[in-house]
Amino acid sequence: MSEMATAHSMLARGQQDDATRVIREVLEAALGELAEEVMPVMAVLTRAVYYIQLGELTASCRDAEEALDSARAMSAGGIAGLALEVLGAARYRLGHFECALEAWSAAIDSFRMVEVFNGAARTGLTAGSNLLRRRDPRSVAVLEGAVSDARVARCAPTEEARAESRCALAFALERAGRAHFRFGQVQLGVADLHEAQRVLQHIGSKREAAEVSRSLSSLLAASRSS
Fold first, then answer.
1. What is the pLDDT of residues 107-142, one digit of tens each?
2. C-beta neighbour count of 160 within 10 angstroms
3. Per-residue pLDDT at 158
4. Which long-range contacts (CB under 8 A, 24 or more apart) does 182-188 make?
5. How far apart are CA 153 and CA 150, in angstroms?
6. Exposed e or buried b for every residue in 107-141, given b needs 16+ CB within 10 A?
7. Region of poorest pLDDT, from 76-80, 152-156, 157-161, 187-191
8. For residue 152, with 0-12 CB atoms within 10 Å meaning exposed, 13-18 middle and 19 or more buried, which class applies?
9. Is 126 helix (H, G, I), strand (E, B) or coil?
10. Strand ranges (DSSP E) for the chain?
11. What is the chain's mean pLDDT, rounded?
12. Which helix (H) or strand (E) is 58 found in, with range?
């Protein structure tokens, strides 16, 4: 589970202090010594996440935009990426899909600029998965980007970040494989799903690896019959 997803879950259980700690850790990883300077912005961003859990989506957009403006004023690319990620989530829940996609795309760019590739991979996976659900061919390029970002993130300086990148890579490969199958690129889909299976086996996720294997068999059978 990604850091932001963990924070969302904590807020849903009323664990605001724990959620704040998780987001602070994300900021510290992204910004290092600058973290203390962005604590006020983090508070606004935490509130934006909390508003999503409450269903107050307009308020969440407002706070995420405020955090984004502050982050950009400080040239804090890591927190700008997080603010855009949250803004995209709020817009998506409001039903404004293209606006959500715009925010997620900007988040990916922001994360890449400061070399927070786990954040870029996570956001690309979110955006690409939602595009795939809509049978949108743009999903292929977005998910391929998430795969590339997750590969780069495997060189992260901490073991925790590297472990997160391996999980992100497996899920991005699985989604990308499905997207390739969806749009007729069967061989690319097979390669992605085989690699996803290997990554999952390597990290000890045997059940998920078996699920990918079953999905591959089903997708191949469907492609042969179509």
1. 999 999 999 999 999 999 999 999 999 999 999 999
2. 13
3. 80
4. 182/132, 182/135, 182/139, 183/137, 183/140, 185/140, 186/220, 186/223
5. 5
6. bbebbbebebbbbbbbbbbbbbbbbbeeebeebbe
7. 157-161
8. middle
9. helix
10. none
11. 88
12. helix 57-73
Torsion, CA 74, CA 42, CA 120, CA 140, rounded to 10: -110
CA distance linking residue 117 with residue 152, whole number of Å: 7
Q: Any idea where the domains of the chain sit in the sequence? A: 1-114, 116-226
Angle between helices 186-202 and 206-225 (to 10 degrees): 170
Tens-place pLDDT, residues 26-46: 666 655 555 566 677 887 888
As to burial, measured by CB atoms within 10 angstroms (0-12 exposed, 13-18 middle, 19+ buried), residue 55 is exposed
Residues 6, 90, 160: CA angle, nearest 5 degrees: 25
Query: 1-114 has which CATH code?
Result: 1.25.40.10
Number of H helices, E strands in the chain: 11, 0
Three-class DSSP category at 204: coil
CA distances from 3 to 64, 94, 179, 224 (A): 17, 23, 25, 40
The model scores a pTM over 0.85: no
